[in-house]
Amino acid sequence: MTIQEMKDTSFDSSSLEEWRETAEASLKGKPLAALETETPEGITLKPLYTAEDLSVGTEERISAIREGIKGPDWTILQETFSEDPAAFLERTKESISRGNGAVVYTGGWTAEGDKPILKELAGLITEWPVYVRCAPDDPFLGVFGAVDEGRRHLVIGYADVERSADLSRLFPALRTIGVSTLDEQLQGADAVTELAVAFSKAAGIAAGEDDFTAMADRLFFSFAVDTHFFTEVAKLRAFRLMFRSFASAYGVEEPPAVPVIACTSLRTYTLADPYVNLLRSANGAFSASVGGADAISVAPFDRLTGGTAFSERVARNVQHILKEEVHADRVLDPAGGSYYIEALTEELYRKAWARFVEFEEKGGFDSISADGTLADLLSGLQEQRIRRLALRKDSLIGTNQYADPDESIQAAAAGSSADARLAGPFEELRLSLQGKAVHLLQFGSLKDVKPVSDFTAGVLAVGGIRPELSPLFDSTEEALDYVRENAVGYAVVCAPAAQEETVVAGLLRDKPDGLRLDAAGRFKDEPALLEAGLSGFYRRGQDILAKLEELKGILKGGTQHGQA
Q: Which end of the chain has fewer CB atoms within 10 angstroms, the N or the C?
C-alpha cells in the first residue's frame, strides 16, 4: 500500500453497542462489569467513557480549572539533605547549577550556620525562589534574617513555617500561608479525604483573616502525589474547582490563582528493591505535571535510608526529562477534555466537597483532629489498603509481589515515617525473617509440582526467605529420610493436587515429633489435617501478612529439628 492509499483509506465507524458486544465476546462469558474497578475513594472506574458520562457544564469547569493554573511550566523543587550548613550551601549551589529551580530546605540542620554561610544563602534566595518547610525554631530561618533590608522584596517562594507573621511582614512577596496534606496522605488519606482536609484547614485559616483575597495572595497548598496516575491528575484538577467554590463562599467570584506544590509520596516507597521507588516517583511527578502543579518535588529513590548526592541528581533529572523530552511544560491542562479524566475530576470534586462540608459541620479541622474523627478515618483507610496488599488484591512490587529474597534490607533512617508507609508491616516481618531456613518437600514430577513450589516460594520471598528445595520424592518415606538427614524442623509440603491429600496424611502419620509441617494448596478435609498435626496452609487468597506472622512464631528459637 502506498502512502497516498493509506491517506485515502477510511474505516467504518463502530457504535458503542458494537464495542460492548466485541468486549463481552473477548471476556469469554464474563459480563462487561468484570472490567470495572473500584478506587479507594469509592469511585467505580469503567472500561470506556463517552460524552454521555459528562454532565452539563463540563466546558465551564474546564475553563475554571485552566484559569486556576498559572501556566504549563512548573518550578523544580529538589530537596537538598544535609545536617551541616556549609555542606548544605555547597550542595544547594551545585543543585542550582544543574537545573534545580529553587533553594529548598525541609529541615535537618543540627546547628546554626556561620555568618558568611547565612549571608551567602541570603544572597541566593534573593536570586532564586525559596521553599522552606520546617519548625519555627529551625536554625535555617537565620538565613532570612541575613537578607539586606533593601533586597527583601526580591525574596519569592514558599515558607511553610508555623507562626510566620514576621516572615510575612518582612518579605511581602513570599507566600507564608501553607496548607499541607502531606502527613494525612502518608497516614492513609485517599484523594477525597486529602481535598476535604485541605479545605477544612484553609477554612480555619480564613476564619482569622479579614480579607480573603489578601490571604489568597499569601496562600499555597501542598499535596502528595501517589502512583494512581489518573486519580492524581484528577485530584489536582478537582482542587482548582474546589478553590473556586471555596472562594465564592467568601464572596470572591474570581479568585486569584493559588499555587499548588506537588511532592511525590513516600506512602508507596519501599526499603526492598529501592530502584522501583524511582518508577513510583517518576509516575507521580508526571501526574503532577499533567494535573497542573506549580512546583514539583521528587523524593530520591533511597530517601528512606537517607538519600545520596546521586539519588538527588536522579530525582532532579526526572523533572528535566519531563520538561526536555516529554515537553510536559508546554501544554496547559493536557488532560482537559478527556471523557475519563473529566468524569473522574467531577466525581472527586463532588465527593470531596461533600466530605469537606461534613468536616465543617463537625466543627472544622481542629475539632475532627481533637475528637479522633480524622484519625479514625485515616486509620480505617490505611488498614483497607494494607489489607488489600496482604490479600494480594493490590501489588507493591518488590514487597508483596515479586520480592527478591536474596536482597537484605536495612531498617529505615530516623524520620523517614517508616511505620506509616504501606510497606511498613511487610518490612517489619522481613527484617525478623530474612535468612531463615525453610524447606519445601516436593512430590511428583517437576512439571506438576513446580507451580505449587513457585507459589509457596513467592510467599516466603515476601519475608526475605529463599527456601531449600528438596529433591522430587515418590514416597513419604523418602521425604522423611530427607527430613532426618537434614535435621529439618519446619517444612512446607508441595504436591500436585492429585497427590496432596495422600501425601500430607502419610507425612503426618509418620513424622518425627519435632517436625512442624505446613501444606501448600486447598484440601477437602482441612479440619481433619489440622487435628492430625498439620500447622497450616499456603494458598491463594490468604492474608500473607498473617501467614508470615504465624511463620515467625513457628521459627522463633530456630528451625533445627527438635527446636521448632
A: N
